[in-house]
Amino acid sequence: MTRPRLITGIDLPLQPSCGSTIWASDVYHQLAPDFHTTFLALPGGEVWQHGFEETVSLRATKQPYGPYFAQYADALTEEVERLLRDRRPDLIHAQHLGFGLALAFARAADQTPIIAIAHGTDIIAATENGQARDALIEIVAASTAVAVPNTAMADQVNAFTRGRYSGRLVTVPWGVPLPKCPTALPTDERRLLLVHAGRLDSNKSTITAIEALRLTTDEHHLTIIGSGSELRCLTTRVAALGLSHRVRFEPFLPRKALWQRFANFDAFLLTTKQLEAFGLVAVEAQAHGLPVLHGDLPGLRHTLGAGALAYPPGDATALAARIDQLANDSGLRRTLSSAAAINARRHDLATTTAHLRDLSKTAMRRAGA
């Protein structure tokens, strides 16, 4: 039996540099038995053992929101129109409610049903930028359904679109591939080995972790794994605070390499201060037995459950108190470690793909009715 043809993509280079491309690789690899997926991406990616069955490199030159964004979206739309005529997909998954490629899908789809898939950066961009907000509204309006990872994001999308498309919003809980068992074992050491991993940008607020470290009672150590626009100012701040002997910077690590490192730490810091759609790497850390200290953002308490401790987002003093609380109570560390591993089992990638599979088949069935 011929599998339905699905086309999706993200207008970023094909590399595991952000949560959305990693998440997409996981999801479409698992959907392969049911759909033939073609993934579109910008050129310039690195060698990566991704899970996409087929990839196509786009030619348009990336432009951020600003005076050239409309021209960029038009160029992508022309490319997508040609691809859709050639490939004749049965379904489109438009990743991100605001990226240029999703906008191109919305404009070029014609009768092909679209499922738009929301990611955390979409809401942040739409809050701060009128072009992003207009793109979000246009993409939602063109979609048969809009998959959101949690009710907090559904509420925000609904607010941007003034409730006109509330019937299209469907909560699809995100998940991660789970290890067979936790690898990070709690210790009784008072000086903690902490880890922060992910993209280093202003919303991830890695600076909160650094500022907190200088306020803790004991001299805990922090390893920051990742790359991004904030790296230089973060390293400068560490030096200015005299923390170079306690803070270590390491470049981005592929997932399997990062997972192997989790066993070396006592807790994971998730310092996002505005919005987190899911907290992919934090759930992965929990699956390996690491307690998570996180900013108390909408949806994160539910996602991270009893295996985490929350603090007011961006509050370094409060985070320092949480770190010391964890350091001073080895029993709490053991309790949180166990609860973290149990909580992560709620976020199995198989659940995500089952929801998307059903939603996709429903969209195609309605389009063919």
List the uncertain runs.
none
The assigned CATH architecture of the largest domain is 3-Layer(aba) Sandwich
- The largest beta-sheet arranges its strands as 3-2-1-4-5-6-7
Helix/strand-derived category reads alpha/beta
Structure description:
This protein has 369 residues and is an alpha/beta fold. The protein has 2 domains: 192 residues, Glycogen Phosphorylase B (Rossmann fold); 155 residues, Glycogen Phosphorylase B (Rossmann fold). Helix content is 43%, strand content 17%. The protein contains 14 helices and 13 strands. Strands 3-2-1-4-5-6-7 form a 7-stranded parallel β-sheet, with helices on both faces. Helix 1 packs across helix 14 and helix 3 packs parallel to helix 5. The radius of gyration is 21 Å and the shape is globular. It starts with a strand and ends with a helix. The model has no long low-confidence stretch (mean pLDDT 93).
Chain-wise SSE layout:
Blueprint: E1 5-13, H1 19-30, E2 36-42, E3 54-57, H2 69-87, E4 91-95, H3 100-108, E5 114-117, H4 120-128, H5 130-142, E6 145-148, H6 151-160, E7 169-171, E8 193-197, H7 206-213, E9 221-225, H8 231-240, E10 247-250, H9 255-262, E11 267-270, H10 280-287, E12 292-295, H11 300-304, E13 308-311, H12 316-327, H13 330-344, H14 349-368
Parallel strand pairs: 1-2, 1-4, 2-3, 4-5, 5-6, 6-7, 8-9, 8-11, 9-10, 11-12, 12-13
Helix pairs in contact: 1-14, 2-3, 3-5, 4-5, 7-12, 10-13
